[in-house]
Write a structure and sequence with these properties.
83% of the residues lie in helices and 0% in strands. It has 2 domains: 12-230, no CATH class; 243-458, no CATH class. The protein has 459 residues and is an all-alpha fold. Helix 2 runs antiparallel to helix 12, helix 3 (50-69) runs parallel beside helix 12 and helix 11 packs parallel to helix 15. It has helices at 13-31, 33-45, 50-69, 72-86, 90-117, 119-125, 130-143, 147-162, 167-190, 195-223, 232-264, 268-304, 308-339, 348-380, 384-415, 425-453.
Length: 459
């Protein structure tokens, strides 16, 4: 039987940092799976046409929103498994993870059917019309039945993180990304299926990853004597524990959906550029989120064992790592925006907007890294109600700011106030979108998380 290493009072800062890094790197592998699929789809579909890229922005937002709303399957399971193992209750911890797998399969199946049926009105409600609407609906209906596979990935990783056996997730992510890329190129250009081919490729890659991870999760659990049969009580308990996390994520995803609708009203080029920058953002924030989740698993284990002092030391180390990671990744993102924009579109105007959006985003990324590290740790500690409440407050502030910016943009456009200005209206719109996201949406959450971490109540 394998055992989980717990910290001792003699662990040095460098030792803690190594343990965080040892979990963060493979955890990143799982986290980037869905954003990586969307990023690959974006780079390939961007060369199909502007309306296809704009349609992908709508369809992929719906998919990412749905997957994001179910992130509690990973976060909640990680916390439960780590705490129970830290308390010496290994079999119970693994059974909690298996309950999460059954819950993921049930939710994924039901949601896939609902989204397939409601694809067209959903895309229309988000601002898609004409060719953009046709592309958005085509992509969504092609990819949607991969959701159960992707949610199984999230739940299985809760088991791996809780066991601190995260390397298998990196292998799965790399294999899934390779499969998705090859199939994307084959279906989109080889078979001429266009954006629908991109959705089918992602669906296959999602199920491939799901099977790849669920099989070893079940085998390891059975080897430790855990039951793999569905237990209604355990499934309902997993759902109940995840309710505040679901509410938290719902508030955040409403903000992101509203942002896409905001970008859609600004025109096809701004929306197409937003999709490219947003796909890159979803990719890089998962590098930062991996630090938070590594800290989450370690802190939850220490809290389960009753070692609060060590939990606080790991919290500080994870927050510093998130800040430093944000600086390094931000510099790389800014460079990518300037150099790699042609990968996402052949249109020079859209390329310029992509570069502007990436640089704006990169400036604020260190703040995001610090915030996400603390966010993961508070989730690991089970501080779900505080996170749900503060995210609802954030949404209540952000949405009116977005509405106000939209009204101001319409007035400036109608009054033609920017004629002859050094930056085009579309460039200023792109800067506004990403500044609002980072200053209000990320900034408020950073304030709330920082204030909470300074107390002991979250423990």
């Amino acid at each position: 039987m394998s055992h989980i290493r717990t910290s001792t009072p003699h662990d040095t800062r460098s030792s803690i940092n190594r343990r965080i890094l040892a979990l963060a790197i493979p955890t990143f592998g799982q986290l980037i799976a869905e954003p990586a699929f969307i990023l690959i789809d974006t780079a390939i579909v961007g060369h199909v046409g502007d309306s296809a890229l704009a349609g992908l922005s709508i369809g992929s937002t719906i998919i990412l929103t749905t997957v994001g709303l179910c992130v509690f399957l990973a976060y909640g399971t990680t916390s439960q498994v780590a705490k129970l193992i830290g308390a010496g209750r290994r079999r119970e911890g693994l059974e909690a993870g298996i309950d999460g797998l059954w819950l993921a399969l049930g939710i994924g199946t039901a949601v896939s059917i609902a989204l397939f049926a409601a694809a067209e009105p959903l895309c229309w409600a988000m601002g898609a019309h004409g060719e953009v609407l046709a592309n958005a609906v085509g992509y969504l209906r092609a990819v949607v039945f991969g959701l159960p596979g992707m949610l199984l990935v999230y739940a299985a990783n809760g088991i791996f993180r809780g066991l601190q056996k995260a390397r298998v997730t990196l292998t799965a992510a790399v294999a899934g990304a390779i499969a998705n890329t090859v199939l994307d190129l084959l279906f989109v250009f080889g078979f001429g299926w266009g954006i629908v081919g991109s959705g089918v490729a992602t669906l296959i890659a999602q199920w491939f990853m799901g099977v790849f991870l669920v099989v070893p999760a079940i085998l390891w659990s059975r080897a430790d004597g855990a039951s793999v049969r569905p237990r209604l009580g355990g499934i309902l308990r997993s759902a109940g524990d995840g309710a505040p996390l679901f509410l938290r994520t719902l508030a955040l995803r409403v903000c992101m959906v509203a942002t896409v609708m905001f970008a859609a009203r600004m025109g096809e080029q701004v929306l197409a550029a937003y999709q490219a920058v947003n796909s890159s953002w979803n990719f890089v924030i998962n590098m930062l989120d991996a630090i938070g989740i590594a800290g989450q698993a370690l802190v939850a284990t220490e809290l389960g064992a009753g070692r609060r002092g060590e939990a606080r030391r790991m919290t500080s180390a994870a927050a510093r790592a998130g800040l430093v990671g944000g600086i390094i990744i931000g510099l790389a993102l800014a460079a990518a925006g300037v150099l790699a924009a042609p990968l996402f579109s052949a249109n020079p105007a859209i390329q310029q907007l992509i570069a502007i959006g990436m640089v704006t985003l990169a400036v604020f990324l260190p703040l995001g890294g610090w915030m996400w590290a603390l966010d993961g740790i508070l989730i690991g500690a089970g501080d779900y109600r505080y996170l749900a409440a503060t995210c609802l407050i954030t949404a209540a502030v952000y949405l009116p700011c977005l509405f106000g910016a939209g009204a101001l943009d319409a007035w400036i456009d109608s009054a033609e106030l920017l004629d002859g200005a050094p930056l085009s209206l579309d460039a200023l719109r792109t800067i506004t979108v990403w500044a609002l996201i980072n200053v209000v949406f990320i900034g408020l959450r950073a304030v709330f998380n920082g204030a909470r971490a300074r107390t002991d109540r979250w423990m």
